[in-house]
């Protein structure tokens, strides 16, 4: 089976020391969609993203990229198709912000295809969209956690891939930059999978996959999936959904069970 989406997972499993991290995950990503991953800590979101990126191999099941088994693609070919922003990024190399973003162009460069105007434009645009152009000459080691996250998103943007995977990209960001990053993600033409903690952010997605203990609990449009009953079952909180009187996205209210 090759699947019908741009990236397909069929019966994917992953265990560590006999403990199931992912159990029978089947998923087909649609071209251009924004898919949100939701679930408690330890539900398998990061492992799922790592398998989608080809960084971790499943112990069961298959992953297909454009209909071809992922393991049959070279690392370079995968990097030209999939960019990934990890939850935490660090390096011991002495890099400027601009140099870190330039790394996103690596999959496209070779002896026959040296750095050119296309690469220059991709880097400048990526720095601009995350609001880091004015910090291009700054040393990576001097950046805050939030600034580093924005640089990593810029690097992935500069990679110019049709698929973008983001593991909780709004962590460490203040509310202004959370919103600006989510606005950017909504505008990008890429197929995007984004792991999130905030259900309000998930309402921006076309579909959400809710996970618990490595299982696919629910998959569909957020307004249909994120019901008070499901939220209570998975997140162990009492949830109310409050309509926005202005006609915008609804608001969630949470209370602990007593």
Strand order of the largest sheet: 6-7-8-3-9-10
Q: Specify the overall morphology.
A: globular
Biggest sheet descriptor = 6 strands, mixed
Low-confidence stretches at least 5 residues in length (pLDDT < 50)? none
Helix and strand element order: EEEHEEHEHHHEHEHEEHHEE
Structural class: alpha/beta
SS elements, strand count: 12
Put simply, the count of helices is 9
Radius of gyration computed on alpha carbons: 19 Å
What percentage of amino acids are in beta strands? 25-35%
Average pLDDT over all residues: 90
User: How much helical structure, as a percent, in the residues?
Assistant: 25-40%
Distance between the termini: 48 Å
Q: What's the layout of helices and strands?
A:
Layout: E1 7-16, E2 19-29, E3 34-38, H1 45-52, E4 60-65, E5 68-69, H2 75-81, E6 82-85, H3 97-102, H4 117-129, H5 145-158, E7 163-167, H6 175-187, E8 191-195, H7 199-202, E9 207-212, E10 215-220, H8 222-225, H9 228-235, E11 237-242, E12 251-256
Parallel strand pairs: 3-8, 3-9, 6-7, 7-8
Antiparallel strand pairs: 1-2, 1-4, 4-5, 9-10, 11-12
Question: How would you explain this protein's 3D organization?
Answer:
With 258 residues, this protein is an alpha/beta fold. The protein has 9 helices and 12 strands. Helix 4 packs antiparallel against helix 5. The termini are far apart. The model has no long low-confidence stretch (mean pLDDT 90). The radius of gyration is 19 Å and the shape is globular.
Short description:
The protein has 258 residues and is an alpha/beta fold.
Keywords:
12 strands, 258 residues, alpha/beta, six-stranded mixed beta sheet, 9 helices
């Amino acid at each position: 089976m090759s699947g019908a989406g741009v990236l397909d997972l069929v019966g994917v499993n992953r265990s560590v020391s006999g403990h199931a991290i992912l159990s029978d995950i089947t998923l087909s990503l649609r071209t251009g969609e924004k898919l949100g991953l939701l679930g408690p800590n330890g539900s398998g979101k990061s492992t799922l993203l790592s398998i989608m990126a080809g960084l971790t191999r499943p112990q069961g099941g298959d992953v297909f990229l454009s209909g071809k088994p992922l393991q049959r693609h070279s690392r370079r070919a995968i990097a030209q198709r999939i960019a990934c922003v990890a939850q935490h990024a660090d390096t011991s190399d002495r890099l400027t912000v601009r140099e870190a973003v330039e790394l996103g162009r690596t999959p496209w460069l070779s002896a026959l295809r040296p750095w050119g105007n296309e690469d220059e434009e991709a880097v400048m645009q990526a720095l601009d969209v995350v609001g880091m152009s004015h910090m291009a000459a700054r040393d990576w080691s001097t950046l805050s956690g939030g600034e580093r996250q924005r640089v990593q998103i810029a690097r992935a943007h500069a990679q110019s891939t049709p698929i973008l995977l983001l593991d909780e990209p709004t962590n460490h960001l203040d509310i202004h930059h959370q919103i600006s990053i989510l606005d950017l993600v909504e505008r990008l033409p890429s197929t995007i999978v984004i792991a999130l903690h905030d259900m309000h952010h998930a309402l921006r997605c076309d579909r959400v996959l809710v996970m618990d203990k490595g299982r696919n609990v629910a998959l569909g449009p957020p307004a249909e999936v994120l019901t008070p009953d499901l939220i209570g079952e998975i997140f162990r909180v009492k949830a109310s959904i409050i309509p926005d009187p202005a006609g915008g996205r609804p608001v969630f209210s949470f209370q602990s069970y007593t």
